[in-house]
Amino acid sequence: MTKVLITGGCGFIGTNLLRYILKEKPGWKVVNLDLLTYAGNLENTMDLAEAYPGRYTFVRGDITDPAAVERVFQAHEFDIVMNLAAESHVDRSILDSGVFVRTNVIGVQVLLDAAVKHKVKKFLQVSTDEVYGSLGSHGRFREDLPLAPNSPYSASKAAADLMVRAYIKTYGLDAVITRCSNNYGPYQFPEKLIPLMVVNAYHERELPVYGDGKNVRDWIHVEDHCRGIVLVAEQGCCGEVYNMGGDAEQENIQIVRSILAHLGRPDELIRYVKDRPGHDFRYAMDFSKIEAQLGWLPRVDFETGIRKTIDWYLENKPWWERILSGTYRDYYERMYGQR
Ligand code: NAD
Ligand code: TYD
């Protein structure tokens, strides 16, 4: 059995990654280390221990706590570590950047120390296209571009990438970095653009569009991202960075309009609001490296993916209602409080 640590497994991408691995990699055993911050939802993963007996373990813990991390590493002797735990929302980082530095930088340093000490075979850091900064109307991000982050979130992710690089060079850790564009799909916390707009459109509330709505993001289905993460963990070369993208550039306003159309709601619900400070204009990914070296390409086309995603939120209304009411946070107490 390959023993894998996934941090942040109760978040959006982590949940999808756990499900992908448990289904597609029968020879892998997974431990999910998650602090259950506001973005961590234990409900997302509650079926996994029973569905995959002996292959899934949840541990509540903080990646910034060296003692807690050491206990988990000592107990499991991991072959692979995939770090997804992070503070991930740009707007929150603008309001309060301290926790972003703590989790996204110090947390990574603590995990890297443990990975070196316990001789982990592969450390995979899940990073983001946002470390490259912003593009104008042309061009795409390549892995050899300089890092030029513009938000406290992306700066903390860039700092983490540099820590990973330093541990490769200094301690000989076998580590790789994936940088991916905006993900969409099931289980995304409804503060991010797509689920937020679906929920507001559903309730016929205003849809807040920052600035003129013409900022561009490249959207990738979370399942394509998860397949790429696993591939890079298995076949990526030490010290390399691999970009992934969905080849699906969209202006924010296009996405908002298509959500309204899918729900049969009027465009009059759109409300242009004050722009995000330092709002990156455009992200686009050149993922020719991972295509050429590892044979990865995105498979989900955006039109199909977005339709299915909107339908998932409509079919799973109780899931986001429990988040909006805050009751999802009682889950831990109900499930583990008695122990
Ligand atoms: P998310 O906010 O949905 O989930 C983050 C998870 O990390 C939560 O379960 C939370 O409880 C956990 N966590 C936070 N602080 C922790 C700590 N100190 N210790 C342990 N667990 C902690 O995030 P996401 O969208 O799933 O993103 C996952 C990773 O992918 C992040 O590293 C993010 O930077 C990166 N990423 C995200 C996107 C995207 O579009 N969502 C794109 C590229 C890269
Ligand atoms: P978001 O989902 O926060 O991802 P990121 O900032 O990491 O790309 O936002 C995606 C885009 O949507 C971004 O350009 C900001 C914009 N946006 C809005 O216009 N309104 C909103 O309410 C939110 C949350 C985002």
Keywords:
single chain; about 350 residues; Rossmann fold; 13 helices; 12 strands; about 15% strand; binds nicotinamide-adenine-dinucleotide
Q: What's the total count of β strands?
A: 12
The strand line-up of the biggest sheet is 3-2-1-4-5-6-10
Give the helix/strand class: alpha/beta
- State the CATH class: Alpha Beta
User: Which term fits the overall shape?
Assistant: globular
The CATH homologous superfamily:
NAD(P)-binding Rossmann-like Domain
Tell me the series of helices and strands, N- to C-terminal: EHEHEHEHHEHEEHEEHEEHEHHHH
Number of helices: 13
CATH topology: Rossmann fold
How many separate structural domains? 1
The small-molecule ligands in this entry are:
nicotinamide-adenine-dinucleotide, thymidine-5'-diphosphate
Roughly how many Å is the radius of gyration?
A: 19 Å
Describe, in short, the structure shown.
43% of the residues lie in helices and 17% in strands. With 339 residues, the protein is an alpha/beta fold. The strands form three sheets. A seven-stranded parallel beta sheet has the order 3-2-1-4-5-6-10, sandwiched between helices.
Characterization of the model:
- With 339 residues, this protein is α/β, with parallel strands linked by helices.
- It has one domain: NAD(P)-binding Rossmann-like Domain (Rossmann fold), CATH 3.40.50.
- The protein has 13 helices and twelve strands.
- Helix 2 (48-51) links the parallel strand 2 and strand 3 (56-60).
- Helix 1 (12-24) crosses helix 8, helix 5 packs parallel to helix 6 (152-171) and helix 7 (193-202) runs parallel beside helix 9 (252-263).
- The radius of gyration is 19 Å and the shape is globular.
- The structure holds nicotinamide-adenine-dinucleotide (NAD) and thymidine-5'-diphosphate (TYD).
- Thymidine-5'-diphosphate binds at residues 90, 182, 192-193, 196, 208-210, 215, 217, 252, 276.
